[in-house]
Specification:
With about 170 residues, the protein is mostly beta strands. It has a single domain (about 1-170), classed as Porin, CATH 2.40.160. About 5% of the residues lie in helices and about 70% in strands. The protein has one helix at about 145-150; strands at about 1-10, 10-25, 30-40, 45-55, 60-70, 75-80, 85, 90-100, 115-125, 130-140, 160-170. Strands 1, 2, 3, 4, 5, 6, 7, 8, 9, 10 and 11 form an eleven-stranded antiparallel β-sheet that branches. The longest helix is centred in the C-terminal third of the chain and has 9 residues, at about 145-150. The protein is globular and about 45 Å long.
């Protein structure tokens, strides 16, 4: 289960929920398959997806997923992150994420092609390995047709946000 959301001025502006099944296919690598729901900013979109996740050489964590949705919508996501251990419990994580879409979805302000990129730094403290609060900063940029849609709606195409949250797994 992966969940991610964003709130601005008390309103939810982005919400993504992924329910994935993972099967090991090699040392440190899993094949993943499942469903995704995007519920903001416009109409809810549902996708089915398949991808890989794992640990590449030099301890780089990779998540790459291809998605197919209703009305012929297609998408791909790529996430890369690296953990820098400052102490045994204090960890700094640089992270990069990108989204690519196969066709325009103007109701959700998404253009086809290379759509959005997020880059950030998160500092977390592991109370236990399974439970860790974090704080950080994230830069977001919209590109191509998505940037054009944002400009036509008088929205920013570049943004920086402070982030805080709780990382947990079981």
């Amino acid at each position: 289960l992966r969940a991610e959301g964003q709130r601005e001025d008390g309103n939810t502006t982005e919400n993504r929920l992924e329910l994935l099944w993972a099967h090991p296919v090699a040392a440190y690598w899993d094949l993943v398959a499942g469903v995704r729901m995007d519920t903001e900013p416009g109409p809810t979109r549902s996708y089915m997806g398949i991808g890989v996740q794992g640990l590449a050489p030099q301890w780089l964590h990779v998540e790459a997923t291809a998605w197919a949705g209703e009305r012929g919508q297609t998408a791909a996501t790529l996430k890369l992150e690296y953990e820098l251990l400052l102490t045994n419990r204090l960890i700094l994580t640089p992270k990069v994420e990108t989204d690519i879409y196969g066709k325009d979805d103007t109701a959700n302000e998404i253009g086809n092609g290379f759509s959005e990129m997020k880059a950030g730094l998160r500092l977390r403290y592991e109370i236990r390995r399974e439970l860790a609060p974090y704080v950080g900063i994230q830069w977001t940029g919209k590109f191509g047709d998505t940037a054009d849609l944002a400009r036509s709606n008088e929205e920013a195409v570049r943004d920086a946000q402070l982030v805080a949250g709780l990382r947990f797994w079981f």
